[in-house]
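Worked example (supplementary).
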Amino acid sequence: MGNAVQAVLAILIGVGGIIALFWILNAVVERLPKRQEERLKPYVFVGPSLAVVGLFLLYPAVLTVWFSFQTRVGTPDQEFTLDNYVYLFTDSRLHSALINNLLWIIVVPSVAVAIGLLVAVLSDRLKPTSEKIAKSLIFLPMAVSFVGASTIWLFIYAWRPPEVEQFGLLAALASVVGDPPSTPILQISDFRLNSFALMAVVIWMQAGFAMVLLSAAIKNVPEDTIEAARIDGASEVQIFWRVTVPQIKSTIVVVTTTILILVLKIFDVPRVMTSGDFDTNVIANIFYDQAFTFGDRGRASVVVVALIVMTLPFMYLNIKRFREQEAQR
Amino acid sequence: MSATTSAPESEEALGAKKAPPPSSEGGAGASWFARFALVLVCVIFTIPTLGLFISSFRPREDIITSGWWTVFVGRGLENFSLDNYQAVLDAGMGPSFVNSLAVAVPATVIPILAAAFAAYAFAWMDFKGRELLFVIFVGLLVVPLQVAFVPLTQLFNDLGVTNDFLKLWLAHAGFGMPLAVYILRNYIGSLPREVIESAKVDGASHFMTFWRLIIPLSVPALAAFAIFQFLWTWNDYLVALIFMTSGQEVVTVTLAELVGSRGQDWHLLTAGAFISMSVPLIVFFALQRFFVRGLTAGSVKG
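After joint prediction of all chains, the assembly is encoded as:
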């Protein structure tokens, strides 16, 4: 019970603290002469969020780049080195993980978008009630945490020796079709099969997200463009590829890049399901191990620098798109 | 970014907005193939959760000696109970659940309030560096969280910040802030100019305009972001794993630990997973429309 009281207190302090902060800052500025008040007030409003972002994203980003050139970070012997970059370009474990990340960013966004698109198109033709039920079922995994989803799928992939009854669905199905599997799927690294088994979890989670956005886009496609194609004698399949898809292209791009950025940093699923063993490691997990298991902050930082470099194109695209939107305002 | 929220809200993401095309016309409507494919996808997507859910009521022995699907032919139905839930609550899930709430509620309110103030300033106040500062927020949308962990662990150590909750609130506030500012600024900026100006004419200060006018008018965007951020912090594993160091735990960390240390104890894992998922599932079913809107709006986050 003490735990609950503590939690309520914590919530009150956290929520009350932020309200009090703005109230006090505002009260201080309002005491100033009118001119200064007008000039300072915007910064009072923007200040706290800027401070938080500066402290938690900007300052660490700069420090991370700096640490990537340092050895024995955090000790008195800290000094300049390029060893971390040598590690980045030569370590075979890291490269194996990079290959996995590459597979992840190719497979997961495309399959999730394909399933999302399929469901969006097909359910669009159902009665509203059936459409709603179908979409809710596909969308539900989105609410679950990565750890929860990993647990759910570990149960699907559960394996027991071939002599006894299988309680994992996948192994049970395999036993029905052919021989009972001799090894658990998460340990089969041939063709990176186990990595694909992990990707299935994230596809399962993200397909609903893709579906929701794509479905909204499809419903915005003007009916008359489809009608015109139909009158010209186009088949439903042709209409889909030549009329619908071109008109929802920008949404497809947004959804694909969003999922891509997500899987670039994928951590929870490999961490919980395989700990990165059996060739399933990914760079975010290597970062975690370097930083918090081996305590090598230089190496950890260089891995993050690699991650930042990979997200730079998306940062550029976001800003470009934002500028275009502003121009239209 | 085609999906950002703006003021006149009319999307109905999960329901059919447009009337379905008249049936039996030009091959539109659902063919048997379309129906079959859709049912198949739905079944495949539902089975994993369903299997875990059913298993969470079965005793330990039953779970590992027979598949959960055997209950459909009546095997072991009489053994169903809530014992697993009791066991996993006693094994640490109870306190973790409370901790998760204590992390997620302030970690949602803090960035929302701070971001709403900033969004108002970005949208309706003139000041030097306005555009540059906002572009910084846009650029930060995709920065990987991993940048923060090593420098901040060190910083928290140096400053002597030992309160886990404070660390997590601030960290989540920082990570959620770019998205919050971005969504809210787009929304608040699309409110009608006359409304804000008439308040000014009536002599209302910015502070009063903000509380009495902007906040009530922005409820849809605030709710959308609140749900996104709440679920994000509730479901977070990595940030909690790194910053919770004093032995307190949140549900995701406890569940992951159970998987690691008691991976064969499926009676605990199944029930534990459902306890950790209970809050997101309630949000999902109760607030589905806001939830969808929040996720759609969040689609630019990195």
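Two points are worth noting when inspecting this output. Confidence is low (pLDDT under 50) at residues 1-28 of chain B. Residues 83-124 of chain B form the longest helix (42 residues).
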